[in-house]
Amino acid sequence: MTKIGLGLAALGRPEYINIRKEKNIDKSEATFKQNAFNMLDIAYRLGIRYFDTAPSYGKGELFLKEWQKNKCYKDTLLATKWGYTYVANWQLGYKDAHEIKEHSIEKLIEQWETSKELLPNLKVYQIHSATLESGVLENTKVLKKLHELKTEIGLKIGITTSGPHQNTVLKEASQIKINNVFLFDVFQVTYNVFEQSTYQTLLNLSNKGRKVVIKEGVANGRVFVETPKILKDIANSHQTTVDVIALRFIIDTIQPTIVLSGAFTEYQLTSNLKALDITLSSQEIAALKKLAVVPETYWKSRQLLKWE
Prior knowledge:
The chain is of the alpha/beta class. The chain has helices at about 30-45, 60-70, 105-115, 140-155, 165-175, 200-205, 220-225, 230-235, 240-255, 265-275, 280-290, 295-305, and strands spanning about 5, 50, 75-80, 85, 100, 120-125, 155-160, 175-180, 180, 185-190, 210-215, 260.
């Protein structure tokens, strides 16, 4: 049964490529920390146990680490990543890239030293935004280190991937074995009503018992500002909101292990969770499948989103 988790991409930093309706919010670190703790509390109270973060999510990993340490929950499942470094340093309007990718063995070792403090609740450790170009899937030193963490600590090893070639990355990563055992257990990927290119691959992975985690289920908020008529009509017929339909589409089409909510407010999170309470008809699913766009077109539009 698919569950909803909470991702901290928007909670841990003052600017992100997410279309936020909230304007004129206090972007101080202290305010964001309090909001993150509040959202984590609300999520836990509402039954969420899977929390996903990364060192590049501003202070997101630190916020999650402190919250977990304070609460001492035994049943939370924490996931983090390595491979990106946050360099904006909480500077509003930062002109350059807010995060820098580096898939070297040195970066893996460096970031693991910090991320391992999430243990024992840390269950999933992922390569952040794996691509063919970065060469990480062919880096023997990296793969062996991840295998070491898998066997010695018992972590689930995963990848996250983005971009027009994410389907190819998924297929290649899913075949990697070390000592005749598949290395990757968890596959986190962008899949939504607009970006459906990984549909068949994700189904195949799920059918083989691999874990599938979906991110950007509402397309970084684009479903709210680029709402197709059919999406709005289906939402109205269910007397709900478009995010609920967008997330339910994901659940009904590929039945992933986890769908991540990128909620920034309690209202957004409680709305997202309503996706667990409805079911789409086969006719509605077929209509929503027609909203898929060519991956290159989708990712080009995503690149145009502003960090705000």
